[in-house]
Amino acid sequence: MQKKRPLGLAISLSLLAVITPSAHAADTPDGSTVAGSAAAGAAAIDLDRVEVRPQLESQTRAVDLKRSSDAIEDAVSSDAMGVYPDQNVAESLQRLPGVSVTRDQGEGRFVVIRGLDANLNSVSVDGIAIGTPEDSSRAAPLDVIPSDSTERLRVVKSPTPDMPGDAIGGAILVESASAFDREGRNLRGKIEASHQQLSGNTSPKAAINYSEVFADTFGVALGVNYQNRKFESDNTEVEYGEFDGGAEDDLFATSLQQRKYEIERKRIGANLNLDWHPDDDNRYYLRTLYSQFDDAETRQRTLFNFGDGDVTALGSNQYRVDDLPADAIQKRMRYRTKKENTFTTSAGGENRLTNAVVDYKVGYTRTEERVNDEMEARFEYSGDDLGASVDQNSGIPRYSLTSAQWMDNGNYDFDRFVVSPKQVNDSERSAQINVRFDGDASSIKFGLLGRWRDRDVNVDERELRVGPDVALSDWTTSTPDHRGGSLGQGMSSDAMRRYWAQSGGQYSARPQDAGGNALTSLEEDYTASEDIFASYVMGTWDVGALRIIGGVRVENTQFSATGNSVEVAGNGRSFTVTPLSVSRSYTNVLPGLHLRYDAGDDWVLRAAANKTVSRPSFGDVAPRVGLSRGDEEVRIGNPQLDPYESKNIDLSLEKYLGSTGIVSLGVFHKSIDGYIVNTVSNTDPAYPGFEVTRVINGNKATVRGAEFNWQQQLAFLPAGWDGLLVGASGTWLDTDFDPGVAGRERDDFMLPRASKHVYSAHIGYEKAGFSTRVAAVYRSEYLDSLGDSRAYDIYVAPNTQLDFSMDYKITSNVSVYFEAQNLLDKPLELYQGVRSRTLQNEEYGRTYALGLKVAL
């Protein structure tokens, strides 16, 4: 009887056997190899039962989707989401060429396609456009959708005329699973524990998915997933400005703050899909997907307003601050729970008639955000005036104070409470029908689409300074760890909330704050409705190996909205509110021509020329005016904004390497008219003497770029090495942007949020029951926002994300996996003007996950 080895040793020996290349490797019936002495026992091991190929299978599916598409697109399949250590859909998409993400608390949130703002993308779930919980933007956050709720993701970079035209950046298509995507009954589940290095917290995650086809005609697919992640981040933020006696180009850290975030982020996802295929000519379906995103966040911060003191430049980026008033040092504690949920459902079918194919769909989507409990308590240091020294040689300024008394919570006086509830409702109903007539080598297709969208945004903020004093020492906790420096004694969020529950009713606003509270409570409130009616005609002709797709789409937009004009008197004690309303209608004609040529020997050439559109953000186009006479400032919405319009040209050359590999090179050009920008002016004739902030249609923006992508299984290598999978992609952008900002006519601008370079690469290995992968994504710096001059422009610094995953199949049904995210421990970094002036540095640490998967 063979002696049993400990499980850990058995797994280690098995891994060694399958990953060690050897001249003595023996082939097994399934084509895998067992090296060295393990070869002698190969006949006793049924490797068919432990074969695992998630990377190769997902790569094959993605290549098939791209190869068969008439549009220019890239895809990720569901298996890839199991391989990558991705928290959500946004992070799964960043692996595609030309795609990057912007992050929130270290997690991917918004998807950037070809360097264009996420505001210019369209996002749909099972063909139904989804809204956004953002109060002013159109950008749909994709961190609210867990990867486990989806089957495949597609990014269409050049849509055909039968697709919605609001996709200057691209169209992101999220698709959930159908039972007919798999064979027979399928049940799979996983449990996971993830550990964040910075916080030391370990968090659970679980998912289960089931699908089955009954009598070959009726399919059911459903899934449920859950994650509760507790983590932290360390943030340092700086503001730079001129100071009395300083040189014109000498900017000093007038304000520096240390922030500590403690977050509990829950995700719940569920989907139920029903399919009925009574025969080969008819099919019907119901699709539903629900995702819930709950984010409980505690933020404590300490602020040092060095600019309030007397600043002296000492040379070599060294500064001395004298007579820093005590109230220039402040402590603030904020707590809020943000709840976002997205629900989509659609029902439709497809019928093949004698001479035509008809498909149709009705859909409904609802997106909501609730932040009902946001509050912040503010305190000011009450000790003696201080002195400080500031060293700006290290990116993040280093500082020291002449006394450590500021660290003691007992030395702070209560200043105010700020409460900031917010509610956003976004819903859309839609209906569409398409009819296609097929000929011998051609087809003609017509379609109609109606979308009826409603939004309601209510943003409130009030400052409450009248009420009992609060002893901050009663809320004291231990000093929180922070990589950037000390925040002094900690503050308890639980103690603050208990106090507010007991005594919050005793606080009110000062009379001189009445106008400011009205401004922050009413200015950003609006309701809006947007109805879109689209029709198109599209023809497809096959001429030998050439496919020609041409057509035109017409979209009519009818928009109406209500908002407020709020004017605050100079003393802040009185204000007037005037309701505003607006309605508008406009039509966009969007022609498109697509060519696809199968050149033989697995070469495919594509070309596309089309026109796309993106509508202004709701917050920009809503009618609103916020005027403060005391501050001599006014903020104005612009209901007369025109939509962005883009003329696009795409060319690509693709070489398919068997069924699993591809090499492709593409070039593209976009000329965008009416690019919308935010402007600040002191010369508006309607508001003499005021600083006026408004959005306008700027001048033209141009995007030129190239994309390269290669991925392949190296099956031609000798046995033992033939399980290698490699891939690399790169995107290069050249952008021109004229924002039309007065005083900066001679400056050259890169398009906001457009990185010049985005690279990704991966190397993986799969053999028998073992699969592992290392993946890296790099993006270069990009412009985040424009200032009054180059010295005040804000940039996001370059970033590299390195992740690792490993999967080992213990039996034919059970596997374990390990994942590591942000292995380089890279922060989110922003800088002002030049790289040496760090504006924000936020660190998250590494995250590790260990899980178990079961498939039946």
UniProtKB/TrEMBL annotation:
All residue ranges annotated as the TonB-dependent receptor plug domain in the record: 67-171
Keyword Signal: yes
Signal sequence coordinates: 1-25
Record keywords: Cell outer membrane, Membrane, Receptor, Signal, TonB box, Transmembrane, Transmembrane beta strand, Transport
Location of this chain's protein in the cell: Cell outer membrane
Pfam families xrefs: Plug, TonB_dep_Rec_b-barrel
Domain TonB-dependent receptor-like beta-barrel: 370-823
Primary residence: membrane
Its membrane topology: Multi-pass membrane protein
Keyword Signal: yes
PANTHER family the record matches: PLUG DOMAIN-CONTAINING PROTEIN, TONB-DEPENDENT RECEPTOR-LIKE BETA-BARREL DOMAIN-CONTAINING PROTEIN
Family in the record: Belongs to the TonB-dependent receptor family.
Protein name: TonB-dependent receptor
The species this protein was found in: Stenotrophomonas bentonitica
Taxonomic lineage from the root: Bacteria, Pseudomonadati, Pseudomonadota, Gammaproteobacteria, Lysobacterales
